[in-house]
Automatic annotation (TrEMBL):
This is SPT13 protein. Residues 38-222 form the DH domain. It comes from the Eukaryota. One of its GO terms (cellular component) is cytoplasm. It is found in: Cytoplasm. Residues 1-25 are annotated as: Disordered. Gene3D superfamilies: Dbl homology (DH) domain, Pleckstrin-homology domain (PH domain)/Phosphotyrosine-binding domain (PTB).
Length: 281
């Protein structure tokens, strides 16, 4: 064995080094190809879900709203406003967004698509989802009242069949915008994972991810504030012979409430319930 080792040709080590370099190069190339393939998959998933979503919005606007407006005996304008909220505005906005997204999509080499700028360009427009999400609980209540009557159940099912919509109930369709606005940050986080820092779209994707996360947080915060205001309004109405100014004129959040003992100068004590709001006690 020692003799064989000693008789190894001088250029053998050079050949081994070259082979090693070649293996490393191939490995790196494979990693890059895998990353490109994963980025392609994520981009294609974003495009596909966007097109399906537009189809859902179209079906709601043309399949349900248009038909409901024809039946004035069954629905009042106020009812339709409660059930569908501003979904027509969302449909209009999303069509524009998808059109711009399609322009940025590279069909031949999807992994080279630069879609980050599209989200940044439209980030302010996504604020319209706030109104829809805040209204959604009221829409569910109104719809559930109507669905107790057979004629409304049959009507909505007839609308679905007429529009050739997939087999999902109307409340399922109306939930899609709420789900959609929450899904954007997840999709962008996945895309960022497979976008290298050298990629021309990296900084835009990173900024788009933060922007869409902020949109989702803002919507949740507004929803929480509205629920808090509603809670105060119901609390004030429940108090018999309420005196003094309206709490909501100054405050919008109940921070704490509890029992306290009030002691007068004469030393008499009384149990009182105190309510601490964000701007008054």
């Amino acid at each position: 064995l020692r003799v064989n080792q000693e008789e190894v040709p001088e250029n053998c080590s050079n050949i081994q080094d070259e082979e090693q370099d070649s293996d490393i190069s191939k490995h790196r190339q494979k990693i890059a190809e895998n990353r490109d393939q994963m980025r392609t998959n994520v981009i294609q998933e974003i495009m596909k879900t966007e097109r399906v979503y537009i189809k859902h919005l179209k079906d709601i606007c043309e399949g349900y709203i248009r038909q409901c407006r024809k039946h004035t005996g069954m629905f009042t304008t106020a009812q339709l406003s409660t059930i569908f909220g501003n979904i027509e505005d969302i449909y209009k906005f999303q069509r524009k967004f998808l059109k711009d997204l399609e322009k940025q999509y590279n069909k031949e080499e999807p992994h080279l698509s630069e879609i980050g700028s599209c989200f940044l360009q439209h980030q302010e427009g996504f604020a319209i989802y706030s109104e829809y999400c805040n209204n959604h609980p009221s829409a569910c209540i109104e719809l559930s009242k109507l669905m107790k009557q057979g004629k409304y159940r049959h009507f909505f099912e007839a609308c679905r069949l007429l529009q050739q919509m997939i087999d999902i109930a109307i409340d399922g369709f109306l939930l899609t915008p709420v789900q959609k606005i929450c899904k954007y940050p997840l999709q962008l986080a996945e895309l960022l994972k497979y976008t290298t820092q050298e990629h021309s779209d990296y900084s835009n994707i990173k900024a788009a991810y933060e922007a869409m996360k902020n949109v989702a947080c803002l919507i949740n915060e507004r929803k929480r504030r509205l629920e808090s205001i509603d809670k105060i309004a119901r609390w004030q109405v429940s108090i018999v012979d309420w005196e003094g100014p309206d709490v909501l004129a100054r405050s919008s959040e109940l921070i704490h409430s509890g029992e306290l003992t009030k002691i007068s100068k004469q030393g008499k004590s009384q149990q009182r319930t105190f309510f601490l709001f964000d701007h008054q006690l």
